[in-house]
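Lecture notes, part 5. Sequence design as translation. It can be helpful to think of inverse folding as translation between two languages: the language of shapes and the language of residues. The source text, in structure tokens, appears below.
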């Protein structure tokens, strides 16, 4: 069975998933191929949306949630690709250079202490021209949402000490040297899908 922490996380996300996150996950991952690394995998919610990949390697720093991801991997009915979970930090990953075709993150960059450091690591483990695919909640992308996320950020972070509501993730990705291929805004201006490419060196 999944741990209590994993179950509670999934239950807490149920409403948001039904309000549109599920559709965005499907859109983000529908055409992923090759060897995939998912950072901040949480309880493995994205697992059901991978099809036609060679393998998925998943990392998270929360052991309870990671146990949920491992359980979902064992329960996946078609089992058509290897799926491995690892207790690891996206800021310092135990993988070789140029190992993955795609890196995926969903609702994770809000809680990484040093996003720039994680993006350097992602570049390292991605193959040249590899893709970074993100589904993130971000600083509002319209004036009203921007004011709201900025206003809510201090009390929200004080409450749970992890999640930043007003990060400019697309800007951070571009500043790290990725080429932004596409981005789109959803959820009243606070959710963003980002596809970026590691520039070949």
């Amino acid at each position: 069975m999944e741990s209590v922490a994993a179950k509670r996380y999934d239950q807490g996300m149920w409403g948001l998933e039904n309000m549109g996150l599920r559709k965005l996950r499907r859109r983000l991952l529908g055409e992923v191929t090759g060897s995939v690394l998912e950072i901040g995998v949480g309880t493995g919610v994205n697992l059901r949306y991978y099809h036609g990949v060679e393998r998925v390697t998943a990392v998270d720093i929360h052991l309870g949630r990671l146990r949920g991801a491992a359980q979902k991997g064992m329960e996946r009915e078609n089992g058509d690709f290897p799926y491995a979970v690892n207790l690891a930090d996206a800021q310092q990953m135990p993988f070789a250079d140029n190992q993955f075709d795609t890196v995926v993150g969903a609702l994770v960059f809000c809680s990484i202490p040093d996003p720039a450091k994680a993006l350097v690591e992602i570049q390292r483990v991605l193959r040249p021209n590899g893709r970074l695919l993100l589904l993130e909640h971000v600083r509002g992308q319209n004036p009203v949402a921007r004011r709201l996320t900025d206003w809510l950020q201090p009390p929200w972070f004080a409450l749970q000490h992890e999640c930043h509501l007003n990060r400019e993730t697309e800007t951070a990705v571009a500043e790290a040297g990725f080429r932004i291929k596409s981005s789109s805004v959803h959820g009243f201006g606070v959710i963003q899908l980002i596809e970026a490419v590691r520039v070949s060196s």
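The translated text above is only one of many valid answers, since several sequences can fold into similar shapes. Strands lie at 34-39, 53-60, 83-87, 100-106, 126-137, 179-186, 191-197.
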